[in-house]
Amino acid sequence: MICGVKFMNYKVLYRKYRPKDFNDFVAQEYVVKTLRNAIIHNKISHCYIFTGPRGTGKTSLAKIFAKSINCQKSLEGNPCLSCPSCINFKENPDIVEIDAASNNGVDEIRELINNVKLAPTSSKYKVYIIDEVHMLSQSAFNALLLTLEEPPSHVVFILATTDIQNVPITILSRAQRFDFQRIRPENIIKRLEFVCKEENIDISPEALNEIATLADGGLRDALSILDQLSSQSDKIKLDLVLKTFGTVSLEQISKLYTAIDENDITKVLELLSSLKSIGIDSKILMNKLAEELKKNALKIKLQEKSENNLSFDNHLQLILDMNMSLNKNLTLDSYMILEMIILKYMSNADNVISREISNKNSDQNDISREIIEEKEDNNISREIISGSNDVNINQNNEIKTNVSSKERITNFLSQKVINEDQIEKFKAVRINNCFVSASKTYLDGLKLNWDLFLTHLKEDNDNLYMQLMDTKVVLASENYLVIQTISSSSAALLNTSLSIIEGLYEKIIEKPYKMVALSSDEWKKSKEEYIKNKKNGVKYELMPEEDMKIKIEDDIDKVADSLFGISLVEMEKE
Length: 574
Prior knowledge:
By secondary structure, the protein is an alpha/beta fold. The protein has 4 domains: 13-179, Rossmann fold; 185-245, Helicase, Ruva Protein, domain 3 (Orthogonal Bundle); 250-346, Up-down Bundle (Zinc Finger, Delta Prime, domain 3); 403-554, 2-Layer Sandwich (GMP Synthetase, Chain A, domain 3), CATH 3.30.300. It has helices at 13-16, 29-40, 58-69, 84-87, 106-116, 138-149, 169-172, 185-199, 205-215, 219-230, 238-245, 250-261, 265-277, 282-301, 312-326, 334-343, 349-358, 364-376, 405-436, 440-460, 462-468, 488-495, 498-509, 520-535, 556-564, 568-573, and strands at residues 47-51, 95-99, 126-131, 155-161, 176-179, 202-203, 235-236, 391-393, 399-401, 472-476, 480-485, 514-519. It has a 5-stranded parallel β-sheet, covered by helices on one side. A 3-stranded mixed β-sheet has the order 10-11-12. Strands 6-7 form a two-stranded parallel sheet. α5 (106-116) packs parallel to α6, α15 runs antiparallel to α16 and α20 packs antiparallel against α21. The radius of gyration is 31 Å and the shape is globular.
């Protein structure tokens, strides 16, 4: 008691409820089973390395294992918790914990090596637990290496890390490796329920679910969140969790997804604005929206849900686009980026078409009028128009179309027929011609030019940039380049708009190039085929290209009727 103030010895929950033995440990079943069997059969290795995300029990399990191998009355590999070794575990001089983040120099490791030679004072094993081992310097790793190669029989090293990539392979090869997985939400909830019962904390099931989601597989984080919430109120409800941590409810996410799927742009913008105004973290919002997208994408694949506005490929690409924005250090407003990413998948030509095909048994005349009106209001670069004469590039690199709605649909239908009959041949010719004189020098130069091209588009042409932002150049020659996209639908869309892309590229980079877009799977297949052909002595030679603007007038009426329920004659009457 100092100056009349009594200090209370409060222990935070994640320390108070740290597991004391294997039976008390949550998840990581295979790791626990393997370590217990090693103790039972007396097959103790000299070095173990525990790797995995933070808060998944690496250090806790290291301490339990150290306690177990020194326990005097171990039962089925589990510490008894009653012998002198277990009782005095925290004060045991033979258990040495080192934080490599603050003790990562070669001098500290040399001191450790000198002490390794000394026999344990009262235990069977001297155990060194080195946390965040990846933080050791290269010199420190080198100093540790010899000891790990030929350690004394009484020494056990347990190395823990969240970044296994930064641990030298020479160290990894001398240790038994155990990979810790993120803890499943149901296991986190079960442990939180136990802690709440012990601490007399009144908490709703919805709040528990939200805490488990926020913890992202880390039990320590979940207990820290619970600790913070319990200090605010004796009764923890979902609203308190959402307000405290700037997260979003599943109901709000469901509303946002429905608005996207129903192509309700106004509703989407209202919901995003509302979530932004109450301080919802955009990263949390994107993660939860990605989960909702994944759930509905699986329903489409399992045929539990029909494709409405968003196809399966749209679900996949939207998740990948959000992930890309999360992995970049953008200085722009993250909500603005999210709005643009979502709007990319709303009211565009390919989604309109897929929606109309799925509803082809409804009133055909109404459908055709809706498509024509929507296309007239949607003068963006993603319209699929055959031929470059219909495209003008103004001083701001924006694309304008100077054709009527009838002409646009006619051109689109012509291009569709060409795509079905000739696109594979067209792609094969361009890939072949690129391979003829492809080289790493061309590729390195074109990669830089492509990045410069995308930078210009980002500033002057957002619509086209959003189509190309996930692309990269994977093959280049003097006059050709191959663009890789993530999905086949993106590649198909780009291949129908190549004249636009090539025109802008020549304007910005000041060098004409012929291009072709491939999905990652298509590129992998083409590359493997090229390697096989080179091994077999096949020589690549330039092939002539056919005119992709061939008009197939005879089939236009058939395609128009099958897609829109309207013929060109009826469009003339409009």
